[in-house]
C-alpha cells in the first residue's frame, strides 16, 4: 500500500487553501493547524504544541484538534498527515511514496488496534500512567468475544514513530484504529478518544471522558463500553467489565503495578527484574489483599527464572502466593495466568497450571499472555500440537511484539518438540536478535543448533548461556526444568555437555 496525498498550496496572506489547483473552503482552526504543520514540516509537532499555538492558550479538549486533523485528511488525502502515537502529528504530503509489506488478512469479526495515547499532562513522568491506562483498555477490549483486538505490545511498537493509519491497518490486519490523549488537572483525568476507519482515515466516532484517579477503574469500564458500542452496537460489551479486584486499601499499589508491567514485559536484564521485585514488594506491603499485585510479583520471579537470571530455589518463596491465588476463586484472567504459570514452572505443576489456564482462556480468549502461557504449559507436558494452536493465535494477535520474545521463544521450543528443527531455529534466531541475553531463547537455540549439526553455533550459545548464568549445569537444568516430555529431556542431556555446559 502507498500513502495517498493530493498536492496543495497555502496562501498565508489570503488564508486560502488550494488542492489540486482548486480553491477549497477551510475553517480558521483547520487552516491554522495546517499552516503550523507546514511551517514545521521537518519535524514532529506535539499535540500540546498545536493546542497551545492554534487555540492561543485556551483550555480546550484534545478532541477539537482531532476534528481538525480529520478534516484536513479528508481534503489532502489520508496519507497527508502522519500520526505519531503518543506524541502528535507530522505533515508528510509531498514525501515520496512508502511501500508497506502485506500484513495478515482481516479477521471475520470487527478488528481494532489501540495506538498509544498522547500524554498531555505536561509531565513526562506520567508516561507510565498514560501507557498503563491504554494497556488496561486493550486488555478489557480483548475480553469481548466478538472483537479482535491487537495486543498492547504490538500497538506500542508504533510509539514515537510517524505512521499512516491505512498502513497501520494493513500491517496489523485490522479495520479500525483508536487514537487518544490524556490530560490531567490535579486528581482529575480528561481522556479524549477518536475511532478511525484505518483504510480511509475517516473518523467514525469521538468522545471525551472525565473522572478522578480514585475512579480509574470505573472510568476504564466506561471507555471500554463506549468504544465497543461505537465499533459494533451488537457487541456484548458487558464481557469487558473488569473482573480484576481493585486495590482495597491503597491506590498507590495500583500505580506501582502500572510502573512494573512494562519493565517485566520488555526486558531481559537482571537489574530490571530486581527493580520490579522491589516495586512489587512495596505494592503488596501497601495493600496485602491486592491479588493482582501478588500475581504480578509471581510472574516477575517466573520470568527471571526463565531468563536464567535467578535459580528456581531463589524464586520458590513466591509459590505460596501462587497457590493461594489459584485457590482464591478469582475470575481475573491475568491473575490466574500468572499464578498458573508460576506453579507450572517453579513447582513442575503443569497439570495444576493447565486447569487454571483453561479457566483464564474462558474468561479472556483473546489475552496474548494467557495464550502464550497456555502454549508453554502444554509444551511442558509434551502436548505440542495443542500448544502450537495457542502460540500461533497469540502471534497473530501480537504481530509486532517488541518484547523479549515470550511467544516466539515458545514457538521455537514447540518446533523442537515436533521435530521441526529448521522452523525452530528460524523463530528462535528472531527472538535472539531482539534480546540476546534472554536465557530461555539462548538455551533453546543451543539445542536447536546442536540437533541441526551446527556445532560452532551451538558452542557459541553454550558460552553465552554461561555468561548469563555462570552456575548453569546439566544437573540443575534437569532438576529444575518444567518440561516432562522424555525425547526433549534427552535432547537436553545430549546437547548441553556437547556445548560446554558442565554436567554438575
Automatic annotation (TrEMBL):
Residues 1-93 bind DNA. This is TolB-like protein. It holds the Pfam family Trans_reg_C. GO terms for biological process: phosphorelay signal transduction system; regulation of DNA-templated transcription. It comes from Yoonia sediminilitoris. Keywords: DNA-binding, TPR repeat. It comes from the Bacteria. Transmembrane segments: none annotated. PROSITE patterns: OMPR_PHOB, TPR. InterPro entries: OmpR/PhoB-type_DNA-bd, Sig_transdc_resp-reg_C-effctor, TPR-like_helical_dom_sf, TPR_rpt, WH-like_DNA-bd_sf. One of its GO terms (molecular function) is DNA binding. TPR repeats lie at residues 368-401. Residues 1-93 form the OmpR/PhoB-type domain.
